[in-house]
Amino acid sequence: MKMSMKSKVIIYTLLTAVAVYFLAPFIYMFFTAFKTEAEAIAYPPRLFPSKWLFENFKNAWQSQPFGTYLKNSIIITVMTTAGQIISCSLVAYGFARFEFKGKNLLFMILLSTMMIPWDVTMIPQYMEFNLFGWINTLKPLIVPAWFGSAYYIFLMRQFLMGVPKDFEEAARIDGANAFQIYWKIFMPILKPSLILVGVLNMITVWNDYLGPLIFLHDRSKYTLALGLATFKGIHSTRIIPMLCITIIMIIPPIIIFIIAQKYIVEGTSGSIK
Amino acid sequence: MKQKKFIRNATPYFFITPWIIGFLVFTIGPLILSLGMSFFDWPLTSDPVFKGFGNYTEMFTKDTQFWKSLTISLKYAAIFVPLNMAIALFLAMLITQPVNGVKIYRTIFYIPAVISGVAVSIIWGWILNGDYGVLNYLLSLLGITGPRWLVDPAWALFAVILASAFGVGTMMLIFYTDIKNIPIDLYEASSLDGASPAKQFFCITLPIITPTILFNLITSVISSFQQVTLVMLLTGGGPLKSTYFYGLYTYNNAFKHHKLGYASANAWVMFIIILILTALIFKSSSTWVFYETEAKNGKKKKGGKK
């Protein structure tokens, strides 16, 4: 479609205005992180620091055991992502490629669990994990992911539904069993979908605050999100370390998103009908 | 031979076993337990005491905070959901325009959604600060005296809405991929007939994406009721409990006041409200959602991979 010069100008103006709205807070935060505490709360504010204090980041990182927090965040993120990828693909394969008794009913149940607010299950889950002796360990944040999430299963199942029947038939004639077909044929086909689920899960888990807040008590078990949140409240005036850690924490999801954005954009299409 | 048949029949169940176990242990089990707990006085420290519908009657008749929180959450949903959807749709239309460099804009628009949670609430808490916040400075350049966003009860809810709109990217992306899948010849044909871009939007784009609008409507109603993290960190429910959302109220009853039974009753009321709202939306959807299968006899079927 051809576009007139005038409408092009309007579109670029709108695009740029929105981009400024979304980017400005980050840019301003980035520059402020290098300022002194006094300069950060000076009014009227200035964009650039008068002197670049790179040691702000080092000081912020050392103000709390952020190394430990980072380690915990990485453990949880990696372990849940592995769990989601394995279990969701197994379940999605089961639902997408087989006919069996009760399949439709089970799938309806699976879909309807997406509607249950977490608040309803959060309290009894806490009691359950308390009973298992899992409170104040990373287990409540990791183990459930190994049993799949309805949304991710649904996403992968939609993807697998589109694969022609002949794929497994040829392999079956060659004597492959269902598990071999899943592993050797469907896992490679599922790759874009696996990446999508992996990335969505990584971003969600990395940013999760409520789960760690409920299940973890000791600082040695804290995640980055939890550690960052402790800056709120106790020292509401200490903005610099808070902003430094915020910057450190948002970099990994942004990098992951930029690398995987092709899969996110493609994977979103058709996943909801 | 019989054994072989058994294996063949059991195979699909083997694959879905992880989900079945997870469903029993982490969803349905807790769900039933939670319903049971809601009929008890269940302090974390001592034994539970059965009190029938006591929690529910207390909530409805004595607890003013219940009604207040419910109203705040409903108000938030009523403002936030349509606003957010309108913005998401507008941005999605913007990034489907055939201009150069639009992919970079798409990335920029989505990035704030990627860093949700604590980071977003910290960034906004700092921007909206009444003493040194940059937003009020920018407003002062325009000659406007900005409100003390987070400490003024009149503005705090609005501040939360402003901050949560930062995550509009996910919904934008869902709209975007749907709009992208609309066959271009529909637009070309209508252009030849002299339809204006506005007419094309209302007569082609909007009807085709109604199923997606339905999906986004339901998911955002659900998520706006579950909004906790942002309010907890941005305002802590204040000032004067003006942003004491229902999710936060439930959370505090459970984990701050250790009234687990009461909080379970809170959560069940929320669940039922969500179910009713979803059912109403679904019911109304037959009048405004247009499914492609109903129009198969019409023009070329909507393209795109499924």
UniProtKB/TrEMBL annotation, chain A:
<keyword id="KW-0813">Transport</keyword>
<feature type="transmembrane region" description="Helical">
    <location>
        <begin position="239"/>
        <end position="260"/>
    </location>
</feature>
<keyword id="KW-1003">Cell membrane</keyword>
<keyword id="KW-0812">Transmembrane</keyword>
<dbReference type="GO" id="GO:0055085">
    <property type="term" value="P:transmembrane transport"/>
</dbReference>
<dbReference type="InterPro" id="IPR035906">
    <property type="entry name" value="MetI-like_sf"/>
</dbReference>
<protein>
    <submittedName>
        <fullName>Carbohydrate ABC transporter permease</fullName>
    </submittedName>
</protein>
<keyword id="KW-0472">Membrane</keyword>
<feature type="domain" description="ABC transmembrane type-1">
    <location>
        <begin position="70"/>
        <end position="260"/>
    </location>
</feature>
<feature type="transmembrane region" description="Helical">
    <location>
        <begin position="9"/>
        <end position="31"/>
    </location>
</feature>
<dbReference type="GO" id="GO:0005886">
    <property type="term" value="C:plasma membrane"/>
</dbReference>
<feature type="transmembrane region" description="Helical">
    <location>
        <begin position="143"/>
        <end position="160"/>
    </location>
</feature>
<feature type="transmembrane region" description="Helical">
    <location>
        <begin position="74"/>
        <end position="93"/>
    </location>
</feature>
<dbReference type="Pfam" id="PF00528">
    <property type="entry name" value="BPD_transp_1"/>
</dbReference>
<feature type="transmembrane region" description="Helical">
    <location>
        <begin position="105"/>
        <end position="123"/>
    </location>
</feature>
<comment type="similarity">
    <text>Belongs to the binding-protein-dependent transport system permease family.</text>
</comment>
<dbReference type="InterPro" id="IPR000515">
    <property type="entry name" value="MetI-like"/>
</dbReference>
<keyword id="KW-1133">Transmembrane helix</keyword>
TrEMBL record, chain B:
<feature type="transmembrane region" description="Helical">
    <location>
        <begin position="260"/>
        <end position="282"/>
    </location>
</feature>
<keyword id="KW-0472">Membrane</keyword>
<feature type="transmembrane region" description="Helical">
    <location>
        <begin position="228"/>
        <end position="248"/>
    </location>
</feature>
<dbReference type="InterPro" id="IPR035906">
    <property type="entry name" value="MetI-like_sf"/>
</dbReference>
<dbReference type="InterPro" id="IPR051393">
    <property type="entry name" value="ABC_transporter_permease"/>
</dbReference>
<dbReference type="GO" id="GO:0005886">
    <property type="term" value="C:plasma membrane"/>
</dbReference>
<feature type="transmembrane region" description="Helical">
    <location>
        <begin position="107"/>
        <end position="127"/>
    </location>
</feature>
<feature type="transmembrane region" description="Helical">
    <location>
        <begin position="76"/>
        <end position="95"/>
    </location>
</feature>
<comment type="similarity">
    <text>Belongs to the binding-protein-dependent transport system permease family.</text>
</comment>
<dbReference type="GO" id="GO:0055085">
    <property type="term" value="P:transmembrane transport"/>
</dbReference>
<keyword id="KW-1003">Cell membrane</keyword>
<feature type="transmembrane region" description="Helical">
    <location>
        <begin position="155"/>
        <end position="176"/>
    </location>
</feature>
<feature type="domain" description="ABC transmembrane type-1">
    <location>
        <begin position="70"/>
        <end position="281"/>
    </location>
</feature>
<feature type="transmembrane region" description="Helical">
    <location>
        <begin position="201"/>
        <end position="222"/>
    </location>
</feature>
<protein>
    <submittedName>
        <fullName>Sugar ABC transporter permease</fullName>
    </submittedName>
</protein>
<keyword id="KW-1133">Transmembrane helix</keyword>
<dbReference type="Pfam" id="PF00528">
    <property type="entry name" value="BPD_transp_1"/>
</dbReference>
<keyword id="KW-0812">Transmembrane</keyword>
<feature type="transmembrane region" description="Helical">
    <location>
        <begin position="12"/>
        <end position="40"/>
    </location>
</feature>
<keyword id="KW-0813">Transport</keyword>
<dbReference type="InterPro" id="IPR000515">
    <property type="entry name" value="MetI-like"/>
</dbReference>
